[in-house]
Design goal:
- Helix 2 crosses helix 4.
- By secondary structure, this protein is an alpha/beta fold.
- The strands form four sheets. Strands 9, 12, 13, 14, 16, 17, 18, 19 and 20 form a nine-stranded mixed beta sheet that branches. It has an eight-stranded parallel barrel with strand order 1-2-3-4-5-6-7-8, surrounded by ten helices. A two-stranded antiparallel sheet has the order 10-11.
- It contains 19 helices and 21 strands.
- The structure holds sulfopyruvate (SPV) and magnesium ion (MG).
Amino acid sequence: MKSRMLRELLRKKSHLVLGGAHDALSAKLVEETGYDAVWASSFGISASTRLLPDANVLTMTEMLDAVKGMNQAIDIPLIADCDNGYGNVHNVMRMVREYERAGIAGVSIEDNPFPKKCSLYPGERQVLVDIGEMAGRIKAAKSTQISKDFFVIARTEALIADMGMEEALRRAKAYEEAGADAILIHSRKPTPDEIITFCARWKKIGRIPLVAVPTKYPEITSKELSKLGIKIAIFANQALRASVKAMRQVLIDMRKADKPGAAIPQIVPLDEVFRMVGQPVMEENEARFVKGFKKKPAAIIVAAGFEKNFWPLNQDRPKAMLEIRGKSILERQVEVLRAAGIERIVVIGGYQGDKIRIPGVTVVQNRAYKTSGMLASLFCARKEMADGFVFCYGDVLFEEHVVEKLLKVKSDVNLVIDRMPAPDRTNGSKKAERDWAHAEGDRVTAIGHHLTPAQANGEFTGIASFSKHGVRAAEAVYAAALKKRSAKFHNAPSVGRAQFTDFAQELIDRGFKIGAVSIRSGWTDIHTFSDYQKAWAAAAN
Ligand code: SPV
Ligand code: MG
């Protein structure tokens, strides 16, 4: 239970810091950024959900609706800012029943009249309700709660209402006696002076902990507040204000540039939002609960290496991000994969990996790309491999029918092989760099740079597929190769520096059937600058 969690936190920690939130997304951000609990701000909820002043204009049920959404999105406790309790004791009692039932850890009730006005609004001060009336609200709240852990904060606005320090202390003491679990002492002065005085005086007369909202004296830290005697510090509305500034700027920039691309440096990738809303688990749930559901494979594109052939074109980006008529190689690959029905696409980045940004595409970085080969890069995406995947090099362009043909075959590991037996297939690059392959029927029998064109009857296109079973086999073979740590691994100096073809040869040597998916056209690779020029010339769009 969240109220129990809150009590535990209060017991264990010197002080708590609450982040103010106004909806489920901002509450989640508060949680993810390490705050102890969420403050569901009446100021924030009124502004963001209805664009209305923080003045009891929203009803209790509207507030509760927003707070429920926030609380359901997070695993940490939430304290709801319940203004003045929305009326008299009857309203307070219903409010406590509803909030506790909704799993809210605690509420704050203030000694403002109904309707109230936000304590920070400029202009005249409000006349607070009588001390006895507020004590009645607290008693009503405490007698209504079911769990002993439900936390009720009594908030006094005496300093805000210019009623003086004595009155603030008198009220706080009365609310403590009425059963409050903590006192929120609010101030709108630009320095913490009156909070410092209040804390010092409270030490002598009060037992229950203090809460502060340092919006108007924002330079004080929660640690400093804690030293004064404040047990809970609330950073109440800064996240909301940050969102206004960020949204406004991005809207201005896009309007000026007349395209959404102007927003890119200032926004999170789509994936970030997909993750936050739980999209990645949707497919897993469908796999568990939808009859006949077949998980679509992912595609893993390895684009981690630095290619000196392309210097200085790749000075500020990896080769896969080089453009061909306005679209990068990677964007072209993603387009084709999506057209062939593959939605989950993962790119392994390395050299200039942070430049890989394609909406909806997950990027996994191989930080050790300088000292590792393509095989090690591929295994950086181990998690994404699990259910089977289509593999491709980051520098091949291919047509949709190639992927479609690959997806139709049933073997566990398949390589797309160009079977056009043309001796001039070298396309300008050195013969030794080509991935020659030999296939007998639908089975690849040899692959790698050690083959001469005469020993091969095809060329590996850099496109392959692994079924779920194929992944398990590949993982076992990879683990065994790593364990062996032999100096050489087929054509590579070590397993760590191995290419994909070295691994395919290892699978063949260990007796795995590697399917050959034969094609005669529909692909090209970009090994050399002249390949790049040819791809430009050939690209229709
Ligand atoms: C709120 O966040 O709604 C508060 C804190 O009540 S303050 O706006 O600072 O009064
Ligand atoms: Mg408020």
